[in-house]
Amino acid sequence: MPNNRYQPFDYVKPPELDGGETSTLPVAIIGAGPIGLAAAIDLAQRGIKVTVLDDNNVVSVGSRAICWAKHTLEIFDRLGIGERMLDKGVTWKIGRLFHGEDEVYNFNLLPEDGHKYPAFINLQQYYVEQYLVERCADFPDLIDLRWKNKVVDHQDDGDLVHLTIETPDGAYALAVEYMLACDGAGSATRQRMGLSFKGETFEEQFLIADVEMEQSPFNTDEPERWFWFKPPFHNGQSALLHKQPDNIYRIDLQLGPDADTEHEKTEAAVMPRLKAIFGDKPFKLDWMSVYKFQCAKLKRMVHNRVLFVGDSAHVVSPFGARGGNGGMHDVDNLGWKLAAVLGGANKDLLETYNSERLHGASENIKNSSRATRFMTPKSPMEMMFRDEVLKLANKEDFARKLINSGRLSVPCALPIEPDVQTTTQRKIGTVIVDAPLSKDGAPCQLIDCMNGAHQLLVIKDDHADLYDVHNGQLSTALKLNDSSGLLVERYSADCAYLIRPDRYIAGITNDVSNEGLNKLTSLAHPAGTADEKAA
């Protein structure tokens, strides 16, 4: 465990309090968690100046969000910290489900080769935040990180957002063109605006604990995810165990709705539970919390010049790793659109962020709610159904599909209407799938060639041409060799794909003539404006 994990970041007196001129800034981001920091880097990569305001000055206390999915890792890769996360994180792909002492079945999340990133890694949130803060330092002229700067009020006058900020040296004001509320599930921004945040609240309580152990509790060589229904070591409905870096193991235990929260958060209550799991293996308690959760979302994520991102806009249960991952999908969708609007594109382009990410939030909430209901049956009939499903799943494939211990996060498909009809391996409105390639004789991955702009991928029998798209015009092609054949296998030969900056497929055609490519390219023209059909 690193000794410097909670070292504070330096507070610097804001220039507005030190005689500096007050000017209108392009973007203020409220909250320096993973979502706010990622949004700052995304915008900085597009040349947008960003001011990040946070009322704290340390990374998150406790591991919190730890499961990062493949698509999210590819987003982090574009932001510049993906490989660092992969090097530090614990990679796993095998999950096992138990009913009592018996293993019901196991699954492999990513059985195929040829991807840069695995299906999932486990990495504590405080590491992710630290890496993002350090990455922000690579943009000294574009990212202004202000610690101990608490936003206490904001007013949107239609043209600008006016913020009031408190610091150890007093209060000051900022005017910004857009404000991103990345201030978490308890969003003060949302509360100030009086926005409805309704959904389903689950009364079940869960104990979450991080335990440091030198000796692995798994009986396998590789880290895995283990989930129990009615675990033999815990008189409750469910338990979850998986590994993090630094020999830290995460355990989630269902406590029930009537558990005494204050008592359960004491070491006197926690240690016997942990000893029941780990037996005589020596361990040390690193962090713990007891929580309830809610599945809820805003009716709108865009309120004129105030944009909600991540948990401030939608929350889900922790089972399925949809919170942090879903927030990163928000960032990936918003960054290029907001940059285009700040560059002069029609402001209505932001409405596609609102509609698409509410669509994604609804899908996450649906899956999260279903998982929680399966894990916490509310009636004897629901309990009987679940237990019978678990018995059948040992032998029957159909029953395994009914088990829900948290369907793990995947990017949602978007309801994009196809302008060019075609039948291929990939579908319009889905995220591109990685594949191994070579460029100038050197190996590379498809995602390494994605540059955060509109691109056109034209696939032939054994190679592909990748163009940048600017205002309906194609740049000189990047020649990519498909020596493994996996690109054609995962897509289709003699097809062209229009790929958005967030790597969603916005259009497909089988007509790879100049006329066909021009028609497909026109879906991204004029680039970044609200009448861009690909958006």
Give the number of DSSP strands. 27
Main sheet record:
8 strands, mixed
What is the gyration radius calculated from CA atoms? 24 Å
Mean of residue pLDDT values:
89
Question: Shape, please?
Answer: globular
Percent in helix: 25-40%
Count of DSSP-assigned helices: 13
Decide which structural class fits the backbone. alpha+beta
Uncertain spans, ≥5 residues at pLDDT below 50?
525-535
**What percentage of amino acids are in beta strands?**
25-35%
Regarding quaternary structure, how should these chains be classified?
Answer: single chain
Walk me through the structure.
With 535 residues, the chain is an alpha+beta fold. It is built from 13 helices and 27 strands. A hairpin with a 2-residue loop joins strand 5 and strand 6. The radius of gyration is 24 Å and the shape is globular. The C terminus is likely disordered.
Provide a quick synopsis of the model.
Helices cover 26% and strands 29% of the residues. The chain has 535 residues and is α+β, with helices and mostly antiparallel strands. Strands 1, 2, 8, 9, 10, 11, 17 and 18 form an eight-stranded mixed sheet that branches. Strands 6-5-13-14-15-12-16-19 form an eight-stranded mixed sheet. Strands 22, 23, 24, 25, 26 and 27 form a six-stranded antiparallel sheet that branches.
Topology:
Blueprint: E1 24-30, H1 34-45, E2 50-54, E3 67-69, H2 70-79, H3 82-88, E4 90-92, E5 94-99, E6 102-108, E7 120-122, H4 125-136, E8 143-147, E9 150-156, E10 161-167, E11 170-181, H5 188-192, E12 199-212, E13 225-229, E14 238-244, E15 248-254, H6 261-264, H7 267-278, E16 284-297, E17 302-303, E18 306-308, E19 314-315, H8 323-342, H9 349-375, H10 380-393, H11 397-400, E20 436-439, E21 442-445, E22 455-459, E23 463-470, E24 473-474, E25 478-481, H12 486-490, E26 495-499, E27 505-509, H13 514-521
Parallel strand pairs: 1-2, 1-11, 2-8, 5-13, 11-18
Antiparallel strand pairs: 3-7, 4-7, 5-6, 9-10, 10-11, 12-15, 12-16, 13-14, 14-15, 16-19, 17-18, 20-21, 22-23, 22-26, 23-24, 23-25, 26-27
